TrEMBL record:
Gene3D superfamilies: Tetratricopeptide repeat domain (1.25.40.10), TolB, N-terminal domain (3.40.50.10070), Winged helix-like DNA-binding domain superfamily/Winged helix DNA-binding domain (1.10.10.10). The keyword Glycosyltransferase does not apply. InterPro entries: OmpR/PhoB-type_DNA-bd, Sig_transdc_resp-reg_C-effctor, TPR-like_helical_dom_sf, TPR_rpt, WH-like_DNA-bd_sf, Ycf3. This is Winged helix-turn-helix domain-containing protein. Keywords: DNA-binding, Membrane, Repeat, TPR repeat, Transmembrane, Transmembrane helix. Signal peptide: none annotated. GO terms for biological process: phosphorelay signal transduction system; receptor-mediated virion attachment to host cell; regulation of DNA-templated transcription. It comes from the Bacteria. Residues 9-105 bind DNA.
Amino acid sequence: MSETALAPEAPLRFGPFEIDPLRARLTRDGEPVPLRPQSVAVLGLLAASAPRVVSKREIFSRVWPGTVVTDDSLVQCIGDIRRALHDADGSLVTTVPRQGYRLTATVERGTGSGPARSAARPSRWSTLAALLAACATFAVLAGAAAWWAMPREKGASPLSVVVLPFKLIGGAASDEYLADALTDDLTTDLSRLPESVVIARGTAFTYKGRSADPRTVHAELGVRYVVEGSIHREADRVRVNLQLVEARTGAQQWSDRIEVAGQELQAFSLIAAGRIARALHLKLVDVEAARGARNARPDAHDLAMRGWSLWDRHTREANMEARAALEKAVALDPDYAFAWIGLANTHLSDVGLRYSKDRGRSLDAAEAAIRRALAIDPKHPNVNGSLGTVLYYRSDIAAAEKAFERQIAMNRNYAPAYYWLGITNASKGDFTASLGRIDEAIALSPRDARLHLFYAVRANALLGAQQPAQAMEWARRVVALRPDFTNGHVILAAAAWQVGEQAIAREAAARALALFPQLTVTRLRSETIATQRERPDLLARWAALEAAGLPP
C-alpha cells in the first residue's frame, strides 16, 4: 500500500467493505455489519497497514493502550472480524505464525478534511486507533451508537458477560453492601477466566435499583450472557439465588442456589463468588460449545470451546473427539494459546486415565503443546495448571507445585489446581496438607465434572493417613459417581481389605480388572513417584491389593 495522504477521519475501503473510524463502524455495500468496536479497531489497524504484517505487540499497544489484555482478547477479535468478512478459511485476514496478522485485500483510502497524513506509519496510525478505541469505550459505557443497539448475536463477544447488581431480598438496608460486594467479587473472578469478556463494574451498576430485561441489556451492551442474582440473609445464614440468561432471547440457561451458614460475611462474598465463577465458567463453556456445534463452518474459537467441553467429560471417547476438535483449532489459528492448552490436556488425560498405550509418547505430546502455549501467552490463566501436570508426571514435584501455586495466584477459582496440589502433597506423604487442598477444591466446585477425581484424591489421602474406614467411605462415593473409574475400585479394594471387609475388597478388585485387564500391582507401583515407592503406607496398600486378587 503506497503512502498516499489520508486524514485520520477518512474511511478505509476494501472490496465491498468500508471502515468508518469516527463511528467505529464497518459497513458492507453501505449496510452496517455488526462488529464490536475493539474488533473494528483491530481491523482498521490491519487495513491501514496492509499488506504489512502487524505484530500482536503493535496491535495491543495501538488498540488497548495502557491496558493489560490476554492473547484471547485478540483471538476473539480476529474471529469476530473473519465472521463479519465471511472469511471462514482465513485467506483475507491471515495469521502469520509467530509474527502477527495481515489483511491481504487491496485497501483504498478515502479523503478527509484534515491535513494529509500517512496511514502506513504506525506513529500516524496511533491517532486513528485511539479514536477507534475511544469510540469503543464510549459505545460500551453509554450504549448510544445506533449500530451498537442493533440485535447483534453474530457480533457478540464469545463468553461476553455482565453481572447485574445482586438484589437484597429482606434483611436490613445496612446489608446492601453484601450484595454489592458479591457483585464486585463475581465480576472480578469471571474476568480472570479464559475466553471471557466481562463488562466492568461501573457500567453494570448503572442497572442497580431498576428491573432490566436481559434483552434490553443485550441491545445496550452487546453481551451474550447476563448473570442475575439475589441475596437473602437470615441471622448467620446467607442464601444466594442466581441464574445465567442468554441475553438476546431472555432464555434461562442455568440456575443455582448457594447457602452458607456460620461464615464471616467478609469472607462469604469471596467464597460464594469463587464457587459461582467456577460453576458459571463450566456452564458457559458447555453453552458456547453447543452453540458452536450448530455452526456449519466453525472457527478456531468454536472448535476450542467444543474441545474443552468434550475433554471435561473425562471419557476415552470424548477425549478423542476433544483432541480432534482442538487439533483443527490450532491448525486454523496456530497462535491460539487456549486451544494448545486444551490439546495438552487431552494428552494428559491419556496419561492419567490410562487411555494411552504409550505413556511416554503421550506425555511428550502434552509437553510440546503446553510449551507452545507458554511461548504464545505465558500469562494465560490456565497455562500453569497444565504445565504443573506435565511436571508432576515427569516426577518434578517441586516444580509442579510452583506451577500450581502460580495457577492459583492467576485464577484463584481454578479448582483443578487445588486438586493437583492435593495429589502432590499426598505423593510426598503430607496427607494433612493433601486433605486441606482437596477440600478447597470440593468447596470451590462441588458440582465439578471432576468431582469423582476430587473424591478419589481424598480417599487416597485418608488411606495414606491410616484411616482406611474413612477412605472406604469416600471410595464408595467415587464409584457411585463414576462406576467406570478404575482407580475408585482400586482404592476401595485396598481400604476394604485393611478394615477386614474381604468380600467387598475382592469384588472391588475384580471390577477394577474388568475395567482395565492390564492392571497389576507392579504397574501401580511404576505409576508412583520413584522415591516414594517404599513408603510403609504404600507397601501395606500393595499387599492388600494382592490379597484382594489384583495380579502382582
